[in-house]
Amino acid sequence: MKLASIKRFIALLSIFTLVIGGLFSFHSVQSFAETTSGKTKVTIHYKPAGGSTKDWNLWVFPEGGEGKAYPFTGEDKFGKVAEIELDGTYKKVGFIVRTDSWEKDGGDRFIDISAGEGEVWVKSGDDNTYTEPPDGEYRDLPAYENINVKVHYFRYDNQYEGWNLWTWPENGEGKAVQFTDEDEFGKVANIKMDNLKDVHKIGLIVRKSVPGNEWADKEFNDRYVTKFHEDGSAEVWIAQGQERIYYDKDLVDRTPKIVKASLDGFNEITFETNFPFDIKNHGLSLSGGAAIKEVVPYDSKAGDFTNKVKVITSKNLDLTKVYKISKENFGEAAVQTGKVVRTPEFDKQFFYNGKDLGNTYSKKETSFRLWAPTASEAKIVVYKSWQEEKGTELPLKKSERGTWKTTLNGNQEGLIYTYKVKIGDQWNEAVDPYARAVTVNGDKGAVINLDNTDPKHFHKRMKAFTPEDAIIYELHVRDLSMHPKSGIKHKGKFLGVAEEKTTGPAGVKTGLNHIKDLGVTHVQLLPIYDYNTVDETKLNEPQFNWGYDPKNYNAPEGSYSTDPYKPAVRIKEMKQMVNTLHHNKLRVIMDVVYNHMFAAGESNFQKLVPGYYFRYNEDGTLANGTGVGNDTASERKMMRKFIVDSVSYWAKEYNLDGFRFDLMGIHDVETMNQVRKALNTIDPSIIVLGEGWDLNTPIDPETKANQKNAGKMPGIAHFNDGIRDGLKGSVFNDIDKGFVNGKPGTEDAIKEGVKAGIDYPSTTATYKDPQQVITYVEAHDNHTLWDKLQLTNPESSVDTRKKMHKLASSIILTSQGISFLHAGQEFMRTKGGDPNSYRSPDSVNQLDWQRRADFSKEVDYMKGLIKLRKSHPAFRMRTAQDIRSHLTFLPAPKNTVIYDLKGHANKDRAKDLVVVYNANETVQTISLPTVGPWKVLANGEKAGNKSLGTLLGKKIKVPALSAVVLEGK
């Protein structure tokens, strides 16, 4: 399974900290660090699989913060090594071994930082995270014969009586060591060990002894000192309530403080300190007109002393007010809005189902409505130009269900604006999430008269379309036109996609002219909403990105327009592109990425309603099923509403014909069903498809919008990675092979894929009918099929690889379900071996029109397959029952699949189609159901809806690496 494209940019590291006595705007991801000063160092050893050529790196996310990519910086006898230093000190650091395209080796892994530095070992194909080299493999650490460690110990309560150390050499016996000295830090103990053998570290436990019980109490479990001088000496500092061992005393924070105070229920505050305290004599007080009813341990197993409690208030608190909580010796902290915004009660109280969020324009007036229920004040900020730094602030009036509104009289077309909200004592400014027009780089919203952006006759929809009839062509706007010989003037632009009758080398059709000639039905465009990673003020510089890094969901991307400085231009030109495609009988699918944003902290969602729109783990850290640091929370009513509203807006305003949901498995079933329902009211033939991968995000597995739950989402299609990997080999292993490139025993995988996966086990997928299945072999992610074949079959000739390639495409276009082609697949597109070209230059990504001219025979073959599919409804059956009744697999030699489509009830009643896939590199003799006569419609070299010749007899010879399609009566 592939974590599609976002995957594709390096997010900024955002470490969130709690400012005592002040307010923290991003409440829910705060301060699980012990202290925000200092550094945290981790060392990660990784052993790749033998023969792997992938460019592995690390995605590291400190607890409570967002992730960032780090390279491996060296090698040792175990494998690759990365030494990483993070700002701040953390108890836990997470990491993922991955490539830039988010191919992951294992899942999320974590390093516990108990000894000041964390060091772990991981192996390819092994999900374990080891604190020692696995399988007894060599670790290059010095061993010591004599060890002398000075341990400094601080207790903020100044109660040292009975406290001592239990210490032991690696794999040796333990002994008690007393604190015998004292300095300005606290008590001091000296650990001496002599005549040691193969000792690399020593362990220690801080414990309390009383008469008759040496283990009356202890702080934490085993901790280790691992850093020594050459002579085996070391000096370390430890503090009460802090698990970490410090090698620098200046990093130790000995000041008792409040670490966390968050409102997690309407009458429940989670309160945490850096040191434990007595619950019975808690000494807590709450200001702001609220009273404390009781204080209970956060963990029911905690004793009388703990550093984390639940504070229950006597009445529900007002989320827009500032409350402060204080404790003697620990200071005072503002109570942040925490988990309360993620409770069902919050949704029930503040869900707003109106149609007027964002701005509503008319020539007489424009109204604005913002949803920000945790804000105590809200304003609209009006700017004279996109570059103005300080605008005019106008108040918004508090309205129903957490909304704020105002109306500006007169014609406000072109008005540039943002919103500001006061969360606690801090003001946050953000672009309107519902903004339909934006300034350059999407930094401000704009009011737009959408009627002035429509091409002539634009809002007349194309005729209804049956999903199984679709042949989807996946395309990046820029790729189509950038080649020097494309013949297209508006290179890299929406208008470049709309140019008609263009030609290239040897007079071949290019651009739209080529796509129309190919015969596909739908063009699926990689993200065309406003995304983050291309600087629209520097379009004269080479820039490329796939666009899976959302910034403003409801406005088009400015870099694809001829003038990103004028908000209306990008809208007009995108509509012109859609309109032209429609006039050429091509429908348009939009790739949408509602599953995450570029960075949670930078997003307009988080600035306006902190903690609500994103999904969090139980410990308060951002969920990371997407692998890029954040998952949106589609199950929350206002996030769900936003997704449904956004898709509906694009469908209506831009006349779109489909939506491809990136990482759809992050979303929930109910949201996707509401999307389907909303689009049905516009046009039931609008296609909804997505990546139904089962991703590690914290919602009920039964509610995830993935392949396993496909049966709960009628009318929504999923990419079938089963047939994809069955055909060419796993996308996660460069040299793994599949059916077409020589892997034996893959026939069953192909058969199941040909049937559109309707008989997969429920643990794989629960497709109920063929319109729920996208049948494909390559997409923008991973290697192109051609590049994959070069990796798996480097010894094969170019001609052999061409045959393999054509066989794979033949299977896609003669299988049940919705056919899907990657742009350039028809001329065996190569990216020069680049498996992840999300930000590679045009020389890698552009459609090579010279190659199209050179591969004209292969293009003609693909055109013939498309004609064949369109001519025979038997390849496009509507129900699972039709497939089971009319498709029969016949006995076949090894590495060969044969099936019979006989008597199909939909227009092909009299037809008998036999399809043969021969993946052997030798001719195969196969038996036919009858003697014929049989018309040949495809023979591995040519294909189409007209006969290539007639065969008579029950046996035929099928060429090596080819697909043969026969039509009988």
Automatic annotation (TrEMBL):
<comment type="similarity">
    <text>Belongs to the glycosyl hydrolase 13 family.</text>
</comment>
<dbReference type="Pfam" id="PF00128">
    <property type="entry name" value="Alpha-amylase"/>
</dbReference>
<dbReference type="InterPro" id="IPR005323">
    <property type="entry name" value="CBM41_pullulanase"/>
</dbReference>
<keyword id="KW-0106">Calcium</keyword>
<dbReference type="GO" id="GO:0030246">
    <property type="term" value="F:carbohydrate binding"/>
</dbReference>
<dbReference type="Pfam" id="PF21653">
    <property type="entry name" value="pulA_all-beta"/>
</dbReference>
<dbReference type="InterPro" id="IPR017853">
    <property type="entry name" value="GH"/>
</dbReference>
<dbReference type="InterPro" id="IPR013780">
    <property type="entry name" value="Glyco_hydro_b"/>
</dbReference>
<dbReference type="InterPro" id="IPR011840">
    <property type="entry name" value="PulA_typeI"/>
</dbReference>
<dbReference type="InterPro" id="IPR014756">
    <property type="entry name" value="Ig_E-set"/>
</dbReference>
<dbReference type="GO" id="GO:0051060">
    <property type="term" value="F:pullulanase activity"/>
</dbReference>
<keyword id="KW-0326">Glycosidase</keyword>
<keyword id="KW-0378">Hydrolase</keyword>
<dbReference type="InterPro" id="IPR006047">
    <property type="entry name" value="GH13_cat_dom"/>
</dbReference>
<dbReference type="InterPro" id="IPR013783">
    <property type="entry name" value="Ig-like_fold"/>
</dbReference>
<dbReference type="Pfam" id="PF02922">
    <property type="entry name" value="CBM_48"/>
</dbReference>
<dbReference type="Pfam" id="PF03714">
    <property type="entry name" value="PUD"/>
</dbReference>
<dbReference type="InterPro" id="IPR004193">
    <property type="entry name" value="Glyco_hydro_13_N"/>
</dbReference>
<dbReference type="GO" id="GO:0005975">
    <property type="term" value="P:carbohydrate metabolic process"/>
</dbReference>
<protein>
    <recommendedName>
        <fullName>pullulanase</fullName>
        <ecNumber>3.2.1.41</ecNumber>
    </recommendedName>
</protein>
<keyword id="KW-0732">Signal</keyword>
<dbReference type="InterPro" id="IPR049117">
    <property type="entry name" value="pulA_all-beta"/>
</dbReference>
<dbReference type="InterPro" id="IPR013784">
    <property type="entry name" value="Carb-bd-like_fold"/>
</dbReference>
<feature type="domain" description="Glycosyl hydrolase family 13 catalytic">
    <location>
        <begin position="500"/>
        <end position="869"/>
    </location>
</feature>
